[in-house]
Amino acid sequence: MTPTITAFERSPDRGQGLARDTRVRWALEEVGQPYDVRLVSFSEMKEPAHLALHPFGQIPTYEEGDLALFETGAIVLHIAERHAGLLSEDANARARAISWMFAALNTVEPPILDRETTRLLERDEAWYDQRMPGVEDRIRNRLGQLSARLGDSDWLDGAFSAGDLMMVAVLLRLKASSGMLDEYPNISAYVARGEARPAYKRAFDAQLAVFTAASTGS
Ligand SMILES: N[C@@H](CCC(=O)N[C@@H](CS)C(=O)NCC(=O)O)C(=O)O
Protein backbone atom coordinates (compact mmCIF):
# COMPACT_ATOMS: atom_id res chain seq x y z
CA MET A 1 0.00 0.00 0.00
CA THR A 2 1.42 3.38 -1.01
CA PRO A 3 1.71 5.71 1.99
CA THR A 4 0.79 9.38 1.79
CA ILE A 5 2.76 12.06 3.59
CA THR A 6 1.95 15.72 4.02
CA ALA A 7 4.30 18.56 3.21
CA PHE A 8 4.18 22.35 2.98
CA GLU A 9 2.46 23.68 -0.11
CA ARG A 10 5.11 26.40 -0.03
CA SER A 11 7.95 25.66 2.34
CA PRO A 12 9.19 28.67 4.32
CA ASP A 13 12.78 27.49 3.77
CA ARG A 14 12.30 27.97 0.01
CA GLY A 15 13.24 24.39 -0.82
CA GLN A 16 16.42 24.12 1.25
CA GLY A 17 15.23 20.73 2.48
CA LEU A 18 14.87 21.79 6.11
CA ALA A 19 11.15 21.12 6.42
CA ARG A 20 10.76 17.83 8.17
CA ASP A 21 9.00 16.03 5.34
CA THR A 22 12.51 15.75 3.81
CA ARG A 23 13.67 13.27 6.45
CA VAL A 24 10.57 11.14 5.90
CA ARG A 25 11.01 11.29 2.13
CA TRP A 26 14.66 10.29 2.67
CA ALA A 27 13.69 7.26 4.77
CA LEU A 28 11.16 6.18 2.14
CA GLU A 29 13.75 6.60 -0.61
CA GLU A 30 16.34 4.61 1.34
CA VAL A 31 14.01 1.62 1.60
CA GLY A 32 12.65 1.97 -1.94
CA GLN A 33 9.06 2.63 -0.89
CA PRO A 34 7.14 4.88 -3.34
CA TYR A 35 4.90 7.45 -1.67
CA ASP A 36 2.30 10.08 -2.41
CA VAL A 37 2.43 13.63 -1.08
CA ARG A 38 -0.52 15.80 -0.09
CA LEU A 39 0.47 19.45 0.06
CA VAL A 40 -1.09 21.63 2.73
CA SER A 41 -1.15 25.36 3.28
CA PHE A 42 -0.48 26.91 6.69
CA SER A 43 -4.18 27.55 7.19
CA GLU A 44 -5.17 23.99 6.16
CA MET A 45 -2.72 22.64 8.74
CA LYS A 46 -4.79 24.25 11.49
CA GLU A 47 -8.15 22.97 10.24
CA PRO A 48 -10.01 19.99 11.73
CA ALA A 49 -9.21 17.58 8.89
CA HIS A 50 -5.47 18.01 9.39
CA LEU A 51 -5.72 18.28 13.18
CA ALA A 52 -7.34 14.84 13.16
CA LEU A 53 -4.06 13.55 11.70
CA HIS A 54 -1.72 15.82 13.61
CA PRO A 55 -2.89 17.20 16.95
CA PHE A 56 -0.36 20.04 16.80
CA GLY A 57 -1.31 21.14 13.30
CA GLN A 58 2.09 20.48 11.74
CA ILE A 59 3.69 18.57 8.91
CA PRO A 60 4.68 15.90 8.14
CA THR A 61 2.02 13.27 8.70
CA TYR A 62 2.05 9.73 7.37
CA GLU A 63 -0.98 7.72 6.31
CA GLU A 64 -0.92 4.09 5.32
CA GLY A 65 -4.30 2.36 5.13
CA ASP A 66 -6.03 3.01 8.42
CA LEU A 67 -2.79 3.98 10.16
CA ALA A 68 -2.08 7.69 10.64
CA LEU A 69 1.16 8.85 12.26
CA PHE A 70 2.72 12.16 13.19
CA GLU A 71 6.19 13.04 14.58
CA THR A 72 9.12 12.32 12.33
CA GLY A 73 10.79 10.08 14.91
CA ALA A 74 7.77 7.79 14.98
CA ILE A 75 7.32 7.92 11.22
CA VAL A 76 10.94 7.13 10.36
CA LEU A 77 11.03 4.36 12.97
CA HIS A 78 7.85 2.88 11.50
CA ILE A 79 9.35 2.91 8.00
CA ALA A 80 12.62 1.45 9.27
CA GLU A 81 10.84 -1.36 11.10
CA ARG A 82 8.63 -2.30 8.15
CA HIS A 83 11.35 -2.36 5.49
CA ALA A 84 14.91 -3.58 5.22
CA GLY A 85 17.71 -1.06 4.90
CA LEU A 86 17.58 1.30 7.86
CA LEU A 87 17.88 -1.01 10.87
CA SER A 88 20.22 -3.95 11.35
CA GLU A 89 18.96 -7.53 11.57
CA ASP A 90 20.91 -7.76 14.82
CA ALA A 91 18.64 -6.88 17.77
CA ASN A 92 21.30 -5.01 19.75
CA ALA A 93 22.45 -3.01 16.72
CA ARG A 94 18.80 -2.11 16.02
CA ALA A 95 18.37 -0.90 19.59
CA ARG A 96 21.54 1.19 19.37
CA ALA A 97 20.40 2.76 16.09
CA ILE A 98 17.12 3.69 17.76
CA SER A 99 19.10 5.27 20.60
CA TRP A 100 20.81 7.46 18.02
CA MET A 101 17.44 8.45 16.56
CA PHE A 102 16.32 9.58 20.00
CA ALA A 103 19.65 11.30 20.60
CA ALA A 104 19.26 13.25 17.36
CA LEU A 105 15.76 14.38 18.25
CA ASN A 106 16.01 14.80 22.02
CA THR A 107 19.62 15.77 22.65
CA VAL A 108 21.07 17.36 19.51
CA GLU A 109 18.07 19.01 17.85
CA PRO A 110 16.78 21.04 20.87
CA PRO A 111 19.76 23.43 21.16
CA ILE A 112 19.79 23.82 17.36
CA LEU A 113 16.08 24.70 17.41
CA ASP A 114 16.69 27.07 20.32
CA ARG A 115 19.17 28.96 18.14
CA GLU A 116 16.68 29.11 15.26
CA THR A 117 13.92 30.39 17.53
CA THR A 118 16.26 32.95 19.08
CA ARG A 119 17.31 34.25 15.66
CA LEU A 120 13.78 34.31 14.33
CA LEU A 121 11.79 35.66 17.25
CA GLU A 122 14.20 37.36 19.62
CA ARG A 123 16.57 39.22 17.30
CA ASP A 124 15.14 42.63 18.26
CA GLU A 125 15.31 42.05 22.00
CA ALA A 126 17.82 44.15 23.95
CA TRP A 127 19.32 40.99 25.41
CA TYR A 128 19.70 39.14 22.09
CA ASP A 129 23.48 39.65 21.86
CA GLN A 130 23.92 38.44 25.44
CA ARG A 131 21.76 35.36 24.97
CA MET A 132 23.18 34.08 21.68
CA PRO A 133 26.69 33.02 22.84
CA GLY A 134 25.18 30.78 25.51
CA VAL A 135 22.81 29.23 22.97
CA GLU A 136 25.70 28.55 20.58
CA ASP A 137 27.88 27.17 23.38
CA ARG A 138 25.19 24.60 24.13
CA ILE A 139 25.25 23.52 20.48
CA ARG A 140 29.07 23.34 20.48
CA ASN A 141 28.95 21.22 23.59
CA ARG A 142 26.79 18.66 21.78
CA LEU A 143 28.83 18.85 18.58
CA GLY A 144 32.05 18.27 20.53
CA GLN A 145 30.58 15.21 22.21
CA LEU A 146 29.21 13.90 18.93
CA SER A 147 32.51 14.52 17.18
CA ALA A 148 34.39 12.62 19.89
CA ARG A 149 32.08 9.63 19.54
CA LEU A 150 32.07 9.63 15.73
CA GLY A 151 35.86 9.81 15.49
CA ASP A 152 37.06 8.52 12.12
CA SER A 153 34.02 6.34 11.50
CA ASP A 154 31.77 6.84 8.51
CA TRP A 155 28.59 6.35 10.56
CA LEU A 156 27.67 6.39 14.22
CA ASP A 157 27.40 2.65 14.79
CA GLY A 158 28.61 0.44 11.98
CA ALA A 159 26.52 0.58 8.82
CA PHE A 160 24.34 3.58 7.88
CA SER A 161 21.10 3.40 9.85
CA ALA A 162 17.94 5.31 10.72
CA GLY A 163 20.03 6.81 13.55
CA ASP A 164 22.40 8.38 11.02
CA LEU A 165 19.53 9.51 8.83
CA MET A 166 17.96 11.38 11.71
CA MET A 167 21.25 12.79 13.00
CA VAL A 168 22.29 14.09 9.57
CA ALA A 169 18.80 15.57 9.02
CA VAL A 170 19.08 17.45 12.33
CA LEU A 171 22.64 18.66 11.63
CA LEU A 172 21.61 19.92 8.20
CA ARG A 173 19.42 22.50 9.95
CA LEU A 174 22.57 23.92 11.52
CA LYS A 175 24.59 23.75 8.31
CA ALA A 176 22.00 25.89 6.57
CA SER A 177 22.20 28.73 9.06
CA SER A 178 25.70 28.76 10.52
CA GLY A 179 29.32 27.82 9.89
CA MET A 180 29.45 25.95 13.19
CA LEU A 181 29.74 22.50 11.61
CA ASP A 182 33.00 23.57 9.95
CA GLU A 183 34.58 23.67 13.41
CA TYR A 184 34.17 19.87 13.53
CA PRO A 185 35.69 18.44 10.31
CA ASN A 186 34.58 14.87 11.04
CA ILE A 187 30.98 16.01 11.55
CA SER A 188 31.09 18.10 8.36
CA ALA A 189 32.34 15.06 6.47
CA TYR A 190 29.65 12.90 8.11
CA VAL A 191 26.91 15.28 7.01
CA ALA A 192 28.40 15.42 3.50
CA ARG A 193 28.33 11.61 3.36
CA GLY A 194 24.64 11.70 4.25
CA GLU A 195 23.90 14.34 1.62
CA ALA A 196 25.79 12.32 -0.99
CA ARG A 197 23.50 9.33 -0.60
CA PRO A 198 21.37 8.88 -3.73
CA ALA A 199 18.26 8.46 -1.55
CA TYR A 200 18.90 11.80 0.16
CA LYS A 201 19.38 13.49 -3.20
CA ARG A 202 16.08 12.10 -4.50
CA ALA A 203 14.31 13.28 -1.35
CA PHE A 204 15.89 16.72 -1.59
CA ASP A 205 15.05 17.09 -5.27
CA ALA A 206 11.45 16.03 -4.69
CA GLN A 207 10.84 18.63 -2.00
CA LEU A 208 12.63 21.30 -4.05
CA ALA A 209 10.43 20.50 -7.05
CA VAL A 210 7.37 21.29 -4.92
CA PHE A 211 8.75 24.69 -3.97
CA THR A 212 9.87 25.47 -7.52
CA ALA A 213 6.48 24.54 -8.95
CA ALA A 214 4.69 26.71 -6.36
CA SER A 215 6.99 29.64 -7.15
CA THR A 216 6.74 29.44 -10.91
CA GLY A 217 3.07 28.51 -10.92
CA SER A 218 3.84 25.39 -13.00
N1 LIG B 1 8.61 17.26 16.41
C1 LIG B 1 7.90 17.38 15.17
C2 LIG B 1 8.08 18.78 14.63
C3 LIG B 1 7.18 19.06 13.45
C4 LIG B 1 7.36 20.49 12.96
O1 LIG B 1 7.88 21.35 13.67
N2 LIG B 1 6.92 20.73 11.72
C5 LIG B 1 7.05 22.07 11.16
C6 LIG B 1 7.60 21.97 9.75
S1 LIG B 1 9.27 21.34 9.74
C7 LIG B 1 5.69 22.71 11.03
O2 LIG B 1 4.74 22.08 10.66
N3 LIG B 1 5.63 24.01 11.35
C8 LIG B 1 4.43 24.79 11.20
C9 LIG B 1 3.73 25.01 12.50
O3 LIG B 1 4.19 24.52 13.55
O4 LIG B 1 2.71 25.69 12.45
C10 LIG B 1 8.39 16.32 14.17
O5 LIG B 1 9.57 15.93 14.26
O6 LIG B 1 7.61 15.87 13.33
Automatic annotation (TrEMBL):
It comes from the Bacteria. PANTHER family: GLUTATHIONE S-TRANSFERASE GSTA, GLUTATHIONE S-TRANSFERASE-RELATED. Residues 90-216 form the GST C-terminal domain. This is Glutathione S-transferase. It comes from Nitratireductor thuwali. It holds the Pfam family GST_C_2. The lineage of its organism: Bacteria, Pseudomonadati, Pseudomonadota, Alphaproteobacteria, Hyphomicrobiales. InterPro entries: Glutathione-S-Trfase_C-like, Glutathione-S-Trfase_C_sf, Glutathione_S-Trfase, Glutathione_S-Trfase_N, Thioredoxin-like_sf. Residues 23-87 form the GST N-terminal domain.
